[in-house]
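S., here's the first fold you wanted:
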Amino acid sequence: MEEGVIASWLKKVGDTVKPGDILAEVETDKATMELESYDEGVLLHIGVKEKEAVPVNGIIAVIGEKGEDFEHLLSDNGAAAEEKEETQEKEEPKKETEKPKSKEKIDTSSINATIISMPKMSDTMQEGTISAWLKKVGDDIKSGEIIAEVETDKATMELESYEDGNLLYIGIEEGNSVPVDGVIAVIGEKGADYETLLKAHEQEMAGESEEEEAPKQESKPSPQPEKKESQTASTPSPAPVLADGERVKASPLAKKIAEERGIDIRQVAGSGDGGRIIKRDVENFVPTAAPAASSSASAVMPAVGQESFREENVSQMRKVIAKRLAESKFGAPHFYLTMEINMDKAIEARKSMNEIAPVKISFNDMVIKATAAALRQHPKVNSSWLGDKIRYNDHIHIGMAVAVEEGLLVPVIRFADSKSLSQISNEAKTLGGKAKNKELQPKDWEGNTFTISNLGMFGIEEFTAIINPPDACILAVGGIKETVIVKNGEMKVGNVMKVTLSCDHRVVDGAVGSAFLLTLKGLLEDPVRILI
């Protein structure tokens, strides 16, 4: 986390605050969390408005005694910024004097309306896509109601309104993207002059843009018109509608389940708020018998030999996967080490352990445990490249790549070397289920020191994986294959598994990676050693 966004203030200036009171809701890098007060006093000052971002350690509020002077605290916070401004003025006095006079600020004090901006829902999020609007212009909205579904880089999330009022304006159509802090809607008093409010907002943004570009020799045109043009040109896929033209209200999970089961969500009756369709409604839905033949179905099917295709907007998760893995692949010099491991004893040991284990132990669980034990013996592999230094981690947190519909998530099994196989198995199953149901929390996917990607269950015998930053290595695990092996000069049938270690050559050399794989091979070929 580098910054937080104040989703809503639960206290206002002048309120008495006690330790344990919730001051505000803060959108962190992956979730919305409650900000608790640890002090007693009066809320004297609020320094960050709702929907605005503030960096870590930035001042968001002041709590003290009623009437106490706090201005010196705020001036201390802005000292560095003022010093920077003074330096720039000394370096470029000419440009400062020649700077054109800014336009008179538009007065919006009498406009009873609020601009709703795209919140930053994760540290990697740069923009969000409006997957569905649950309200339309003219609808009355109460605080706490869901107004839209937003697709971020990690998941599809519900955008909650923190204002009471009328939905006066929608600035982004379904299926289109908007950058973080971009205007998506205006909520306020019916008949409020929201157009003036938007103009004032544009003026404010333009002023900030001019200040940022002032040191440059050539000023670039504002990107605002291009953004509007691209939004107009983009054609989003229409949301399901009823016969009377009204849009179907359904949660993202309900839509997903309906799509997987081939259910027309328009036929499902909703039991949620305002007739909204939820997961339970889809699961309990019994479809009516369909006609034997459908003329409309044949009409939309392409004729034999006719070319056809469809295009979909890239999801936020896929955008981030593409960005991070491209940076890893082309930024870190990869090399690969492949080794065959005889899994005969591992198969026997697993069968024996599962006779008494409280949970079913998988081969993946055994690989995680053996990898953690091997990392303990080879700490140089359990490391990260930090540019001017290398971090060698004393703790061992194994990232476990899990495929989900939108892409890939990597939940983390912490302190894997100190956990039993049963504990690892139970945790892996729990985290895997959370990943597929989009229930992971920030603590579940942060802090990995080494990653394992296993495609053996899909019949893949061997592959290479791209390193998952900030790790220095990733282990690609293939499936167990029954094959002919030579043992003591004789050919026998055995079970072999291939693993490939991808290494960042800036941190790990070939000899170090090879030694790690030899230790891993020894542990899996004689699994009793894992338990020691």
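And the second, which I think is the more interesting of the pair:
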Amino acid sequence: MYKPECKDSGMDRRQKVELFEVIRRGYASGETIQGLSKKHGVHRRMVRQALGSATPPERKAVVREAPRLGPVKEHIDQMLASDVKAPRKQRHTAHRIWMRLCREHPDHLVGEATVRRYVQVRKRELGLSGREVFVPQSYELGQEAQVDWFEGMAKLGGEVVKLQFFAMRSMGSGDAFHRAYPHATQQALLEAHEHAFDYFGGVFKTLRYDNMKSVVKKILRGYQRVETDRIIAFRSHWGYLSEYCNPASGNEKGGVEGELGWFRRNLLVPVPEAGDLTALNQQVLADCVANRGRTIIGRSMTIGAASELEREHLLPLAAEGFPIHELLYPLIVDGKGRVKVKTNWYSTSLWPGLRVMASVGPLNVKIVHDNKVAAQHPRCYGRGHEILDLEHYLDVLERKPGAMKGSTPLQQWRQAGRWPACMDAMWRELEQRHGKSKGTREMIALVRAGSSDGWDKLIVAVKDALRLGISDAAAVMHLLRMPDPEQRRQCAVALAEELQQYERPMPVMDNYDLLLTNTTGAIQ
């Protein structure tokens, strides 16, 4: 018995097109419809379709009923209707609807995938899907750059820390600049701008931001903003224009948003490692430069080539940088040799009672007296912390050597790894030889030598002295200041070159040697 369309059931579209061609050729050569049907094992209806058109008709989509979904459709619609007036971030997801159906209607169990498909269709009909159609944008070279912060992790000195990464992306060339900071402060933002301008070789005509607090004080109607005084002065100094996105509208700066994701996936995986923040930013800058060799999909030239062309369209750099550092004056040195800057205490070697000025930057704090930097510390963003340097207390410790062992600056040095175990071993040797007071003063002298000649060199000299069994500060300082083998080799080469001009050939002594021969009558 003939089975209609038995061959059609397992045929893909390409095979069906080829079959239609064979049928049409056979019919043109005189074969009948019934004969072609039997020959190719298809129904006569398909033969007629092939004769009517060389293109097979599209298969009709089968509309399947959902008997399990039917009884709960009304409940799903009620949940979605309530979402119309609910806050955007507190609306039902498909998974949440399915969980409620399982709990509230256990007699009508339905699969989560079935609920998910129905919810997707209904949300689109109710305008709750959140998906919009965006219009592609084109940008001229040098026209606009977009700015944003994003959070990332890095391992600094063996410790995993959370950092804030600044990003500025050119919308014309696709080039991007990134830089890491401990906190996304206003000073860090302004400093990062200047580093970015140096990286791009100029200033963009327009910079687009979201409504970050370090830039915007108040959001007004539309695109109007009340900006902070510092950002207005900074913008005036560099000569660009500012534009701001609507609240919760990250799509309005989609270029930098996409850049953040690309940077995080490609350059922060695995978690980067560096000795400190400065070394990490050098790695990040090298990654930005290497990224210039990439070609963005849909463009004909590399990012680096487009960035070179863009330099001609950028505004020129200002002759001087903007005064980013915050100046605090007057501040008083207290009885512990500290200066309170904002919410923390920083040490200095100045006398108590002096009036000083603090220059506060995004990464460091400088204590200035008589236009000279008296102390410099990494900035602390906590509250009530003491940031103390042992070198600032050496004069006092020479008069009070007993206070050194339990001093807070020494404890901070130990915690930071600046006071290794070999220093304590040398300290004990000096105390055994000279007594506690004099031995501590000898140790203070070594600390002073390390401050002037280099702390790493002092550590090496102390280790060499302990290995040789030396327990004298003068001997340690001799080892510290003795040239290393490479320096001695360079000095020897320089001396040989200097003496080469005095070099003379050796005299010939053959005639004089004849006088030493044992001949008769010769003078012995």
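Why I say that: Residues 1-6 have pLDDT under 50 and may be disordered. Residues 262 and 268 are 9 Å apart (CA to CA).

Talk tomorrow,
H.
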